[in-house]
Amino acid sequence: MEFLQWFVDLGATVLLPILIFIFALVLGTKPGRALRAGIIVGIGFVGINLVIGLLVDSLGPAAQAMVDNFGFNLNTIDVGWPAAAAISYGTSLGSLAIPLGVGVNILLLTFGLTKTLNVDIWNFWHVAFTGSLVYALTSDFWLGILTIIVHLMLLYLMADVLAKYIERFYGFQNITFPHGTSAPSAFVALPMNWVFDRIPGFNKLEADPESIQKRLGILGDSTIIGVVIGILIGILAGYDVPGILQLAIQTGAVMVLLPRMVALLMEGLIPVSEAAGAFVKKRFPGRDLYIGMDSALAIGHPAVLSSALLLIPITIFLAVLLPGNSVLPFADLASIPFLICLMVPIFRGNIVRTVIGGTIYIGVGLYIATWIAPLFTEAAIASNFDMGENSSISSLIDGAVWTTFLFVWIPKILSWYGMGALGLLTLFGLIYQNKIKPNRTRAKEGRTDETEEDDSLEGKEA
Predict the structure, then answer these.
(1) Taking the domains of the chain in order of start, what are their residue ranges?
(2) Where is this region: Disordered (predicted)?
(3) pLDDT tens per residue, range 353-404
(4) CA 211 to CA 77: how far, in whole Å?
């Protein structure tokens, strides 16, 4: 266990290249190509982290200044996902999320109940988060373990379902995102998009980056949009002219640099993705294999970044205007792209739909973050987290995610019975998605082929 923790503590930029290298070798990739793929993936993640760091360093102070400028006063501080991850792994059962995550994944893959091979080990903190909250709520260690297992199963089910949307919109073949923050939002976007498609007039509004650029010319370019949004945030923050202009260039830089860093990371993943496809086709005909990755790959899309930047001031004002909310958004404001990046494929890149959908999603999420704040604070104390002068803390990631509410509310109301029922329901979902549905599809295709053959014979006889 200590070695495993040491291995994880290496961080994603070291851990992921090692895993990609080993994975590529297992799939039959030549050692030289496998080594280069792993290194390029690591470099890509370094680049992504540098750009995200720029985003945090520029928007973090702007968000704080915006809060101070308008005199907002809420008593629960958003401490951000790094603190949430540290708290999650710092509890007595949090570190068990990693071996449980790997074990559950291998077990499901063995029985053909998932197509997702998850190499994003660091992000098992999302399931450690819900497990730790349930443990803080019930003081039942084994119920916390069951929560982690069921949450893992649900994320693998979500990843299997979302793979087709990810490939269709982002163009990432054989890659999916079993990410505890990003994946759940897509399943809220699906019914929202169904409603949007049935609103006369609104359903014909094209607001993806390409359509906006066609209409507005240079003003619709994603870089210019980033600069304009940076100016808007700087004005709301009360910055002086130099400060506004610096923030504008920094947000424009993020819009340009992040997609390029993602492209670099994908350069390293392409050989592995191709090898995975060939490996599965050879040894498991009829099955697909998706590589489970961090959704950081998706946040560089112009539609994601533009929507997320617009949602930053919206989120701050929502926190003040919504009655009953006690959470002051702060540290996770720059991480809003992770909350919405899998809503964007469902909305087909439409920025207007994403901003509206994201506003509703985050608005409800603020109430969830408020609801779990006492448990979050208790878990922080149990993990010896330094809360400074704050007496109540929470987070937008994962505090504002509906799965957090689900996995805490069910044990609170129904204890083991509720979590057991949710586990069985999730297991049936995995069986349906990976066993029943493919069999029905193959049967349908078989009937279609027979019909075409019969039609062909009839034509010859005629």
Answers:
(1) 58-258+274-455
(2) 441-462
(3) 999 999 999 999 999 999 999 988 888 887 777 766 777 888 888 889 999 9
(4) 38
